[in-house]
Design brief:
Blueprint (H helix, E strand, L loop, with lengths): L1 E3 L5 H12 L4 E5 L11 E4 L5 H8 L4 E4 L5 H13 L4 E6 L9 H15 L3 E7 L10 H7 L1 E4 L11 H12 L2 H4 L3 E4 L7 H12 L4 E4 L2 H10 L4 H15 L9 H6 L6 H7 L6
Parallel strand pairs: 1-2, 1-4, 2-3, 4-5, 5-6, 6-8, 7-9
Helix pairs in contact: 1-6, 2-3, 3-4, 8-12, 9-10
This protein binds NADP nicotinamide-adenine-dinucleotide phosphate.
């Protein structure tokens, strides 16, 4: 049995869909059963803040796909529950984890990865570059103002479609032995800037979408005004400042080598989601 956490999220929902379609025995962990993914999978309700619910979810599970907002205490609770319940292998979706990063989210990912390595579980780390799906959060601003505000400068990003992260995760959880102890870097097929994003959106929507370059402080304030929690807006603004300096300009061929399929381009992502921007 494979347990997928975060099964209502960007990666978790698609991983559950793929595993269900491939008829792998799969259990999806959700907080709210009414939002559970459909398909040929078991649903279990649980909360990362309630270890008793995690233990129930882990029963009879051999492999866990750990996807969550990566709050260290919560992911550490999932890892500890997996150890208690005799899980064999954990696949963790991660980002650019680093113990000395200025971005607290990345320091948190490093703490979680260290805990997983020391847990005794067999594991695989999937360190992903920024998801194309984050662009969907720009849709309301684009619709309202004809453009978007961003502090990424002309920094290039190996942006990856979360569907490809999910496809890679599904391939790894179904062949854990092949991937034990490995760390993969998941990216799209090319480096793109936010100017490229504006151009792709302009082409797809048939009108100009403007990229308005701004600094981290103004960007942080705009995110908070748009409803992003302060701590997340702070981490995001830090991360975009680093992107402007070239921090996300990395590519890898791991998606294709694991799934056998080339990752989706930005153009494909935009074409598939054009309705969300109109
Ligand atoms: N976004 C990116 O660009 C990006 C890039 C690289 C790596 N990553 C990594 O990917 C991971 C997930 O990020 P994401 O953006 O894919 O997340 P996401 O789509 O927001 O999904 C988070 C999932 O966690 C669930 N969840 C939240 N709190 C929970 C709780 N207390 N108990 C049970 N479930 C809970 C959410 O459920 P609800 O629907 O109930 O809220 C949702 O299903 C993180 O490790 C992140 O660092 C993200």
């Amino acid at each position: 049995m494979i347990l997928v956490t975060g099964a209502t999220g960007k990666v978790g929902s698609e991983a559950v869909r793929l595993l269900g379609a491939q008829r792998h025995p799969t259990r999806a962990l959700v907080r709210d059963a009414s939002r559970a993914p459909r398909g040929d999978v078991e649903i279990v309700t649980g909360d990362f803040d309630r270890p008793d619910t995690l233990d129930v979810a882990m029963r009879g599970v051999e492999t866990v796909l750990l996807v969550s907002p990566a709050v260290p205490a919560q992911e550490i609770a999932v890892i500890d529950s997996a150890v208690r319940e005799g899980v064999r292998h954990m696949v963790k979706v991660s980002s650019k984890a680093s113990a000395d990063s200025p971005v607290d989210r990345r320091r948190g990912q490093a703490r979680i990865e260290t805990h997983l390595r020391a847990s005794g579980l067999s594991y695989t780390l999937l360190r992903a570059n920024a998801y194309m799906q984050n662009l969907l959060a720009l849709a309301p601003m684009i619709e309202r103002t004809g453009g978007f505000l961003m502090s990424a400068g002309d920094g290039r990003v190996g942006m990856v479609d979360a569907r490809d992260v999910a496809a890679t995760a599904a391939a790894v959880v179904t062949a854990p032995g092949t991937h034990a102890g490995r760390t993969y870097r998941l990216t799209g097929p090319g480096l793109v800037t936010y100017a490229d994003v504006a151009e792709e959106l302009s082409d797809a929507l048939g009108h100009t979408v403007e990229y308005r370059r701004t600094g981290p402080a103004e960007h942080r304030a705009a995110m908070i005004q748009a409803g992003v929690p302060e701590a997340v807006a702070t981490s995001n603004a830090q991360a975009f400042g680093l992107i402007a300096e070239g921090d996300a300009a990395w590519l890898s061929e791991d998606v294709e080598s694991i799934t056998g399929t080339a990752p989706r381009t930005l153009r494909t992502f935009v074409a598939d989601h054009v309705a969300a921007f109109t």
